[in-house]
């Protein structure tokens, strides 16, 4: 799992790439953070939202692939240290990040995985293009013809808004 978020000119992009070495399945995901979450995070932390966006990419992907990942080993490649360390520790001093981490691990209760979270330099992160609404390079590298949209289930968004 490669995940990425971008925060440029008030645009919160999401990108992810899944390469399943057991089945050979490959997917590219691209999308945006729901505006309601951005407004909530701005109230909590101000205008610098990249850490929340990067962590939300992991949370949304974990939700979308919970059945696919259940009882499997996964490696998450993340280029944001705050998001990475929050998931590794299972906590954060930031309330917004703490709520996101809690949701990431809530999925572990119903669909457990054996996950490792590792750093990938931004320039080597294949999810960077999809986070900027440019998934073509990742799709070409993986030899796939379509890009999936990030899903934002109302129950997940509501939970993060009401935390």
Description:
- It is a single chain.
- By secondary structure, the chain is α/β, with parallel strands linked by helices.
- The chain has a single domain (2-162), classed as Ribonuclease H-like superfamily/Ribonuclease H (Nucleotidyltransferase, domain 5).
- Helices cover 46% and strands 23% of the residues.
- A hairpin with a 6-residue loop joins strand 2 (11-19) and strand 3 (26-32).
- Helix 2 packs across helix 4 (81-89) and helix 2 (50-64) packs parallel to helix 5 (95-110).
Write the layout of secondary structure elements.
Elements: E1 2-8, E2 11-19, E3 26-32, H1 35-45, H2 50-64, H3 66-69, E4 73-78, H4 81-89, H5 95-110, E5 114-119, H6 128-131, H7 136-142, E6 148-149, H8 154-162
Parallel strand pairs: 1-4, 3-6, 4-5
Antiparallel strand pairs: 1-2, 2-3
Helix pairs in contact: 2-4, 2-5
Notable traits:
alpha/beta, 163 residues, 6-stranded mixed β-sheet, 8 helices, 23% strand, Nucleotidyltransferase, domain 5
Summarize the entry for a quick read.
The protein is of the alpha/beta class and 163 residues long.
Portion in helices: 40-55%
Strand content: 15-25%
Tally of individual helices: 8
**How far apart lie the N and C ends?**
26 Å
Query: What is the number of E strands?
Result: 6
Name the helix and strand elements from N-terminus to C-terminus, one letter apiece.
Answer: EEEHHHEHHEHHEH
CATH structural architecture: 2-Layer Sandwich
CATH class division: Alpha Beta
Shape: globular
Mean pLDDT: 96
Order the strands across the largest sheet as they lie in space.
5-4-1-2-3-6
The figure for the number of domains is 1
- Low-confidence parts, pLDDT < 50 over ≥5 residues? none
Radius of gyration based on Cα positions: 15 Å
What class do helices, strands and sheet pairing give? Answer: alpha/beta
Write out the CATH superfamily name: Ribonuclease H-like superfamily/Ribonuclease H
CATH fold descriptor: Nucleotidyltransferase, domain 5
Largest sheet: number of strands, sense, barrel closure: 6 strands, mixed
């Amino acid at each position: 799992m490669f995940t990425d978020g971008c925060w440029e000119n008030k645009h919160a992009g999401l990108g992810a790439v899944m390469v399943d070495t057991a089945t050979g399945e490959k997917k590219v995901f691209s999308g945006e953070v729901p505006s309601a979450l951005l407004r909530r995070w701005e109230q909590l932390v101000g205008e610098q939202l990249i850490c929340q966006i990067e962590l939300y990419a992991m949370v949304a992907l974990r939700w979308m692939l919970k059945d696919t990942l259940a009882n499997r080993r996964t490696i998450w490649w993340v280029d944001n240290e705050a998001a990475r360390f929050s998931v590794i520790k299972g906590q954060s001093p930031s309330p917004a990040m703490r709520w996101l981490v809690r949701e990431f691990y809530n999925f572990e209760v119903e669909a457990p995985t054996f996950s490792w979270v590792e750093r990938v330099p931004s320039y080597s992160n294949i999810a960077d293009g999809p986070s900027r609404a440019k998934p073509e390079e990742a799709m070409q590298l993986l030899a796939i013809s379509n890009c999936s949209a990030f899903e934002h289930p109302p129950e997940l968004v509501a939970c993060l808004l009401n935390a």
